Amino acid sequence: ENVYHIHSILRDYLQTHFYCHQPEDFQNRALRIAGRCYAADSQLFTAARLYYKIKDFDAILSLPFDSVYIINQREENMFDFIKVVFDACPEETLCKYPFVLLMFSYVMFLWGDPETFRKGCQLIDFSIKENYASLGQYELQKLKGEFLLVTSIVEHKDIKSIWEGEVKACKLLKGASSIISNEALWFEALF
């Protein structure tokens, strides 16, 4: 396997030339193509950062993130990035991706950001009520189950209330959660 390393002086020159001497349209196309390549190689966070440079929030929220991937990227400032996306992305766009929005919200809660979690929950609640993402009946029921599961774990402080919420959520989910995983629960227990 050939591995090439670019010297920092050459890298700085190329970056300066790219950002200062190339038309914006060319830059956007190049960054979008690079983002697709990184996504295809399962380097989702790198792809998301490239998409963010061109403010392509649809592309960011379309990436196949899961909570385990995000938690594994915590040393790479993934949580800070999610917060930036939450703040910069139009709410209409966030509402089009309610499953990703719920996962991001849950992970931000685990990271200790209840404000972002609450904002995400408000948007998810709106998305469910209005079916903003035009989900089919099965997907909408699954979203309601995931949302109920996450909020029952986060908002209730006593075991009985949590259990009741989980039972209701499981009836809606009819299977395992795609948001909450054993690895995410271990992460929560560490903090």
Word description of this protein:
It is a single chain. This protein has helices at 8-21, 24-40, 44-53, 57-62, 67-72, 78-88, 91-95, 98-110, 114-130, 137-155, 159-173, 182-190. With 191 residues, the chain is mainly α. It starts with 7 loop residues before the first helix and ends with a helix.
Report the portion of residues in β strands. Answer: under 5%
For the sheet with most strands, the description reads: none
**Weakly predicted, low-confidence segments:** 186-191
The string of secondary-structure elements, in order, is HHHHHHHHHHHH
Name the assembly state: single chain
Keywords:
single chain, 191 residues, mainly alpha, 12 helices
What does the secondary structure layout of this molecule look like, with pairings?
Layout: H1 8-21, H2 24-40, H3 44-53, H4 57-62, H5 67-72, H6 78-88, H7 91-95, H8 98-110, H9 114-130, H10 137-155, H11 159-173, H12 182-190
Quick synopsis:
With 191 residues, this protein is mainly α. It is built from 12 helices and no strands.
